TrEMBL record:
This is Sialate O-acetylesterase. It comes from the Bacteria. GO terms for molecular function: sialate O-acetylesterase activity. The keyword Signal does not apply. Pfam families: SASA. It comes from Chitinophaga eiseniae. Residues 73-191, 370-492 form the Sialate O-acetylesterase domain. Keywords: Hydrolase. One of its GO terms (biological process) is carbohydrate metabolic process.
Length: 611
């Protein structure tokens, strides 16, 4: 394991009441008597980085010994899937894993678990060193962060990884912190009506649910993909599209069918079906033949070869069986990413598809208790307190997309709640701002993702917080952008500046104020280094400007030192400026270190998520 340097080291456990506990770490010794509740806690004096040491804990008639214990910096890495995303599924996985020989970087991955009440111990997980056997399963963001910190500081680094994809911030916050907010108070109190029996029943239902997800029911996989099956009464949906396009929120299996006409030039050729970036679990069929069964998007790409004997000139039927889970599902944009091709000619799969819910056995409801307030804190964070840590790194926010305005309170509440519980003062809390994602829109528009980013920027008002902006690292059709190396590097840059007191630039330009001038607005920035620039050497993009009518137009932007002058011919008397205010903004303003400018707006006009 890795224990935290330069601060008292807490060690705790359980034994019969009144037991004398003796602990030895290297040459240091500490003793304590177990309390009436059977719990004991002792603390070793702080010590410098080093090791390996042996930690031995003895009771009345038993002893536990841990070898190869290092002293260094311990970071708690938490959040949803982009923090959980493993090295093996990120960019350059094979190369990175093969080069992973870092015996002084260790991970403790906390097993997924949820609980109605705060737990005293984690459900599972053990410390493992970073090597070719282990690194692939670790958080990619945390690994690349830890590697840079280790290389620069020359001390062991421990990562406690407590993550769960698709989870909102309130699931990671403790009950007391949630009760203090009117946004979450009623939802937390509603948890009190739940019982252990509810969890047990949910576990039973989940077994049945996954049986339905993984195994087609009622012979649907034989009948629905067939060329002779009639879908004439099925409703239509435009693809690409997401689960909301299928008539609102839905959890279960959706079948989709589309008829395409193949020209005579395709005869005798093997064709490729390209599905772009489909969500969740799916199976693809062509003329009744199963082409693939993809479990959890295990395939790095989603194009499949169809043998010529399965095809015919004229009408052919493509069918998809898609699991709609947790608000996701469907075929993601862009439209030109879904097609059939012989290598020379493409036939688009965009446009109307027939679809039907509940063709199979209706799936049982997924209650998603792991997303309920405090459920993950109780099981996956509370047991870690008071393990001494250097700080926390966090990547989350996607699951709070539709409550971005509330995130202004919910996210700071989590930070304050954790700091109160750890009793380590305002320990460093560093986090990743959401990347660019979704379809690029041609005109300035409102955006939930922009509002989440704004809430994240506002959280910098809390002491000892830091943010890594990655507005240039996202992918339009992939909520899990592959370049986790740069995400980890940027988090480590923030840590270097804020925690380890390095000199230099650690983040991109940040909005510092603006001045109205005739027909234009002058915007001031901090964090510019030796000057502002466009990352691609072209004209600055990403700025929009509006007058009192609140109608935004794309703006011209001219760099003047640490300022940008913004104007548009359509706006004679500008009132407000926005930069990179979109789900997937096209923007290119950077500082001399090449780090992107943080998205911002000068107005406070009501957005999409404000009540």
């Amino acid at each position: 394991m890795v224990l935290q340097r330069n601060q008292p080291i807490p060690v705790w456990g359980w034994a019969p009441p009144g037991t004398l506990i003796t602990a030895v770490l290297g040459t240091a010794q500490a003793k304590v008597i177990t309390g009436k509740d059977g719990k004991w806690t002792l603390r070793f004096p702080s010590r410098k980085a080093g090791g390996p040491f042996t930690l031995k804990v003895s009771g009345a008639d038993t002893a536990v010994e841990y070898k190869n214990v290092l002293i260094g910096d311990v970071w708690l890495a938490s959040g949803q899937s982009n923090m959980e995303w493993p090295v093996k599924d990120a960019k350059d996985a094979a190369k990175e894993i093969a080069a992973s020989h870092w015996p002084q970087i260790r991970f403790l991955v906390v097993d997924h678990h949820k609980s109605l009440t705060p737990q005293q111990d984690i459900p599972g997980g053990k410390w493992k060193a970073c090597d070719t056997a282990n690194t692939g399963g670790f958080s990619a963001v945390a690994y690349y962060f830890a590697r840079k910190v280790h290389q620069e500081q020359g001390v062991p680094v421990g990562i406690i990884q407590s993550t769960w994809g698709g989870t909102p911030v309130e699931a990671w916050t403790g009950r007391e912190g949630l009760l203090a907010s009117p946004i979450t108070k009623s939802r937390v109190l509603a948890n009190d009506t739940l019982t252990t029996a509810d969890f047990v029943q949910d576990s039973i239902d989940l077994v049945r649910f996954w049986e339905v997800v993984y195994h087609p029911q009622n012979n649907a996989d034989r009948e629905v993909p067939s060329e002779t099956f009639s879908d004439a009464t099925w409703p239509q949906v435009q693809m690409p599209g997401l689960v909301k396009d299928f008539g609102g929120p839905y959890e279960g299996i959706v079948w989709m069918r589309k008829k395409i006409t193949l020209p005579a030039s395709f005869t005798g050729k093997a064709l490729t079906v390209e599905l772009g970036h489909p969500e969740m679990n799916y199976s693809l069929y062509v003329n009744g033949h199963e082409i693939c069964k993809n479990i959890w998007n295990a395939s790095p790409s989603h194009h499949y070869t169809v043998p010529p004997e399965m095809l015919k000139t004229g009408e052919n039927v493509i069918a998809l069986r898609i699991a709609m889970l947790w608000g996701g599902g469907g075929l993601n944009p862009p439209a030109d990413s879904i097609y059939v091709t012989d290598g020379a000619t493409r036939i688009s799969l965009a446009g109307p598809w027939r679809y039907k819910k509940d063709v199979e056995t209706t799936a049982l409801a997924i209650r998603n208790y792991h997303c309920y307030p405090a459920m993950l804190y109780n099981a996956m964070v509370h047991p870690l307190v008071p393990y001494a840590i250097k700080g926390a790194i966090w990547y989350q926010g996607e699951a709070n997309e539709y409550a971005a305005f509330d995130y202004r309170q919910l996210f700071p509440n989590l930070i304050k709640d954790w700091r109160q519980r750890w009793q380590q003062g305002n320990f460093p809390f560093l986090y990743v701002q959401l990347a660019n994602f979704k379809k690029i829109k041609p005109q300035p528009s409102e955006s939930e993702w922009a509002e989440v980013r704004e809430a994240q920027s506002m959280t910098l008002s809390l002491p000892n917080t830091g943010m890594a902006c990655i507005i240039d690292l996202g992918e339009a059709g992939n909520i899990h952008p592959a370049n986790k190396q740069e995400v980890g590097r940027r988090l480590a840059l923030v840590a270097g500046k804020q925690v380890y007191h390095h000199k230099g630039i650690a983040s991109g330009p940040s909005f510092a104020g603006f001045t109205k001038e005739p027909h234009r607005i002058r915007v001031r920035f901090t964090g510019t280094g030796t000057g502002l620039a466009a990352s691609d050497g072209k004209a600055v993009t990403g700025f929009a400007i509006a007058g009192a009518d609140k109608r935004f137009y794309w703006a011209n932007a001219i760099i003047e030192g640490n300022e940008v002058v913004v104007y548009a011919d359509e706006v004679a008397t500008p009132t407000a400026v926005r930069y990179a205010w979109a789900d997937n903004p096209v923007c290119n303003l950077v500082n001399s270190a090449g780090l992107p400018a943080v998205p911002f707006r000068t107005d406070n006009w009501k957005g999409l998520t404000q009540p």
